[in-house]
Write a structure and sequence with these properties.
Layout: H1 4-18, H2 29-32, H3 34-38, H4 42-50, E1 56-57, E2 61-63, E3 67-68, E4 74-80, E5 85-90, E6 97-102, E7 109-115, E8 121-129, E9 132-142
Parallel strand pairs: 1-9, 3-9
Antiparallel strand pairs: 2-4, 4-7, 5-6, 5-8, 8-9
């Protein structure tokens, strides 16, 4: 018969084992590509991150609202069938790079985040797949105080 103290001990032991480091690892792009995060223009940030700014439209879908009543929480979704790296940029704030994700082999690209934009601008998603860069862009109108102006 197991008592409460033994049961809790076994539970905590199982939790510790389940939290052990896995084979996944993350790349800190702020350390490895710092100029991408200080770039003031989207094409410069893309070049700093990927080595080129030449992108082809297609193979990536970007979803964002046409009008955002609150520039502090704009929902953005990026989907693609395949890729090894995903980056999101915007041209409304001083620094253009918003987020960069490394996709594990065979991983599903269906990322949803919330971004901040100080004013109306363009959001761009870039997916690296097979050495090529694919992009999609969307204009987002940020209204002041939710009044539609």
């Amino acid at each position: 018969m197991i008592n409460r103290r033994n049961f809790l001990g076994l539970g905590l032991g199982a939790l510790a084992v389940s939290m052990a480091p896995s084979t996944l690892s993350a790349v800190n792009f702020r350390e490895t590509k710092p100029k991408a995060f200080t770039a003031k223009k989207v094409d410069v940030a893309i070049k700093e991150l990927f080595g080129t700014s030449a992108t082809v439209e297609g193979n990536v879908e970007l979803s964002a609202p046409d009008i955002a009543e609150n520039g502090a929480v704009i929902p953005v979704t990026v989907t693609a069938k395949s890729g090894s790296k995903v980056a999101i940029f915007q041209d409304a704030n001083p620094e253009t790079t918003v987020a960069v994700f490394t996709v594990p082999e065979g991983g599903i690209i269906d990322y949803g985040i919330r971004i901040k934009m100080a004013k109306t601008g363009k959001v761009t998603a870039v997916v690296e797949d097979g050495g090529k860069l694919y992009s999609a862009s969307k204009d987002v109108k940020v209204t002041i105080g939710g009044c539609g102006g």
